[in-house]
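FAQ
Q: What does a multi-component entry look like?
A: The components come first, one per line:
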Amino acid sequence: MDASYITPFMTSIQNVFSTMFQLPVEIGEPRLKTSSTTTHDVSGIIGVSGEMVGTIVLSMPSDAAEAIVALFTGMQMDADSDDFADAVGELINMISGNAKAEFQRKAVSISCPSVVIGAGHRVASSSGTPCVVIPCNTDCGEVVLEVALREANESAETTTKAA
Amino acid sequence: MRILLIDDSKTMRNIQKSVLKQLGYTELEEACDGQDALSKIGAFKPELCLVDWNMPTMDGLTFVKTFRQQDKTTPLIMVTTEAEKSRVIEAIKAGVNNYVVKPFTPDLLSERIAETLAKCGVSSS
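Then the predicted structure of the entire assembly, as tokens:
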């Protein structure tokens, strides 16, 4: 995957977290996701379509997610509540939208967010599209961004070989 | 001043409400998408709308185009993650008066509201 697809997401999560609730984010070393990599307990998911296709996931352990949502909304929320899922969805929406703006020369759209909550779930990207995991350290705990993107006119097989 | 907040995220509507209440605006109504907003306009008669772009059922751009067919003057501010210049131009052509990109600080949102009301010659009281 082109590194220029990853960098916007690093700056975007830092921008969103610092602007909305003054939480600094330290970016770790990005790595390719392997099939054995498990996702955390809470995942906000956005689909990407247009000239680029794929999936963006913000995945967080429950403790970190609850702390971050509390900072974002100003309220402690039960992870089972609709409002908690709404807040996680809005976070990944802002992160994806912000990053998408860096792909100025491409017509790219993002979907409305979906949120999955539950221990042990795994979010699979479409077959053959490599997924890069970006570790993000915060005072609320480590969260990860998973970026699985390719150009729409590029076959999944070609993308996998290039990665 | 009556302000209609149109966003499918309750979290975002709450954040906007909090900023607006701090600015002294208390007549606030909420809508979860463009269709919901159109159904509330007749009764609420907003003097300002903050409208998201990406929403289910009816998105913000469609709302703006539909609303502008019947109301050319009420100020509309697009508050969205859509930050590309082409999107901003598209929204302005459709009839929005100002544009705020998420994420935003409370100060930025209040500045844009004040700027928009001044530009549209609307009293903020």
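Q: Is there any commentary attached?
A: Sometimes. For this entry: Helices of chain A lie at 7-21, 62-73, 82-100, 156-162.
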